[in-house]
């Protein structure tokens, strides 16, 4: 399960409808998310990555204290299925503590090759 911060890597232009260009996409993004427009182009990415990292470390320490083994992954954790509820609660509480709101936590399937 992971904190739902969905991102698309590379090939973004190809994913836009044919009649869209990047300028139109940016204008639509700014209209949809006006509250973060002032942050764009300000070099905030590293600060946000640091916040996410500190939150994840706090979540890992919380789980470790409860005897839950968790493997950190890009934007989430891998835990034993039997400890899912504890991991979800830790992630929700970690985001609430770090950002003042609970992030959406969802489960993502793990490729069978990763389990061998």
Based on Cα principal axes, name the global outline: extended
Strand content: 5-15%
Sheet with most strands: strand arrangement: 1-4
H-E string: EHHHEEHE
Distance between the termini: 19 Å
Total beta strands: 4
Q: Find the structural class using helix and strand composition.
A: mainly alpha
Low-confidence residue ranges: 1-8
Q: Report the mean per-residue pLDDT as an integer.
A: 84
Helical residue percent band: 40-55%
Overall tally of structural domains: 2
Radius of gyration: 17 Å
Largest sheet: 2 strands, antiparallel
Summarize this entry quickly.
This protein is mainly alpha-helical and 116 residues long. The chain is built from four helices and four strands.
Notes on the protein architecture:
By secondary structure, this protein is mainly α. The chain folds into 2 domains: 6-42, no CATH class; 44-116, no CATH class. 45% of the residues lie in helices and 10% in strands. The chain has 4 helices and 4 strands. The chain has helices at residues 12-15, 22-32, 45-65, 84-99; strands spanning 2-3, 70-73, 76-79, 105-106. It has a two-stranded antiparallel sheet. Strands 2-3 form a two-stranded antiparallel ribbon. α3 packs across α4 (84-99). The radius of gyration is 17 Å and the shape is extended.
